[in-house]
Amino acid sequence: MGVRLVVNKLLDNITGLATDSRKVKKGDLFFALQGDSVDGAKYIEQALTNGARRVLSETTHPAADKVDNLRKKVGEIASIYYHNPSAELKVAAVTGTDGKSSVTHFIANALGEIGEKVSVVGTLTHTHTTPPPIELQEFIRKIVDDNVVSVAIEASSHGIEQSRLSGTEIDTAVLTNAGRDHLDYHGSIEEYHAVKKSLFYLDVIKSVVVNLADRLGRDIFLNPPPNRDLFGYVVSTSSELQSTILAEILDSDHSNPITIISGTIVVQNGDGMELEVECIVGDNKLNGKLSTPLYGSFNAENLLAALGVLLSWNVSFKGGLSALSRVVPVAGRVELFSGGELSPDIVVDYAHTANALSLVLATLRKHLHNSATKLWVVFGCGGERDRGKRVEMGRAAELGADYIVLTNDNPRKEDPKAIINEIMQGISVAEREESCTFKVIESREEAIRFAFNSASAADTILIAGKGHEQWQYIGDDKVRWSDRDFAQELI
Q: What angle, 0 to 180 degrees and rounded to 10, lies between the N-to-C axes of helices 215-222 and 189-198?
């Protein structure tokens, strides 16, 4: 008996799906999942009391059907319950340490410019970067019913590891980059990268878009799964570096169809960037220009990642460049709040890794600065998260900024002073000839206010770490806070 037929029988007379016993309604199918510390079977009685018609469990229970590896199958069951909605869409899944939100929104913006109705799933639209599988399948069904034809999904390492994308038919998988993050969860950078890589080897994937300047991206491109269209992109201000990367790729032996997109930044200023873009498809070369109000080489990479997706979905090279030239910055991603001539500019960004912080600081140097102006950074590190990156972020801040103000960024139940002390271990006079000045102010509001009042009108202040977020988690308290709203208030 086929899997779909078995599941359809399982879903007979089921009126809803739930993994939380407290949210079970009459007629629901309850999934009693095994967690890291709690067995969901413990809540089966509560689910039945609330009206569950059927229960699936990973462990033996008299009131449940036992299903091995149930967590990996929730998405598949949810997809069947919602009538396989992702099969009715073009789906891109974007993974990477940094850039997921930007790339998904650039894809959506560009497709919107050419007349498609598009949706996004991710950090700016949902509670989880990649929603749990039932929530995801329900959302996809909703947008399909609303005549959406394409969706770009952020695929976090947690989401991939926990099979949240199970049941989703992904057309195109994208890798922006693979740095360091979430080692508190994955244990090692090798395991973190392995989880990211696994997305590209799922059977449902039809095409792959990867950053060739990234080691993991090159590995995927040079060792691809069969029967996938490969799109590689690379951006550089150095033609020599770009040529070295492209030579390695073009000299490789490929049976998969390949497309290479290369971009060279020729202009960077306060108005944005201009890129010269070349696209190699077999023996054919296409050339064009892309002007954008966005800042930074990382955004140039994000634009070319989006272009790779557009090309994989049969948008023309010229049409893709034209559409991408009109995309706008994503909320809380290098978002400028201009102070005019009377007060410093403020830039709000989500950078919460050392690499992201370094890139944003370097970008602001190139786009907004001359030798007479100073660059400030206000940031902290999250509590109860990867402690190893704190020193690295302190080092990145010192190397990139003139003034540092260390503050809280979701300390949760960890001692804020201890977090800040660990960041300060990366701030050393030896790191540069002239050490930057730094100050510690735990209150995020007061830290930002101090920087704003202390900076000259010609300076720029980067507020890093929270981006679009609307809350601050301190101890047991969830406190309303928005860097963007406060920046606007100060300006």
A: 40
pLDDT digits 0-9 by tens, 21-62: 999 999 999 999 988 778 889 999 999 999 999 999 988 999
Read off the amino acid at residue 128: H
Non-local CB neighbours of 114 within 8 Å, separated by 6+ positions: 315, 319, 323
The answer to whether 279 and 317 have CB atoms below 8 angstroms apart is yes
Phi, psi of 225 (to 5 degrees): -65, 155
Tell me, yes or no, if the pTM score tops 0.90: no
142, 110, 150, 106: which is closest to 126 by C-alpha? Answer: 142
CA atoms within 13 A on the CB side of 423: 31
Of 324, 350, 379, the residue that ends a domain is: 324
Determine the length of the chain.
491
Q: For residue 276, report the phi and psi dihedrals to the nearest 5 degrees.
A: -95, 125
CB count within 10 Å of CB 449 equals 17
User: Does residue 102 sit in the same domain as residue 135?
Assistant: yes
Q: Give the Cβ contact number of residue 229 at 10 Å.
A: 18
> What is the Cα–Cα distance from 227 to 220, expressed in whole angstroms?
14
d(CA 481, CA 471): 5
Q: Which of 473, 453, 480, 469 is nearest to 346 (CA)?
A: 453
Name the residue among 347, 306, 373 with its Cα closest to residue 109: 306
Nearest to 357 by CA among 414, 324, 406: 406
Number of H helices, E strands in the chain: 17, 21
Domain end (from 324, 357, 390): 324
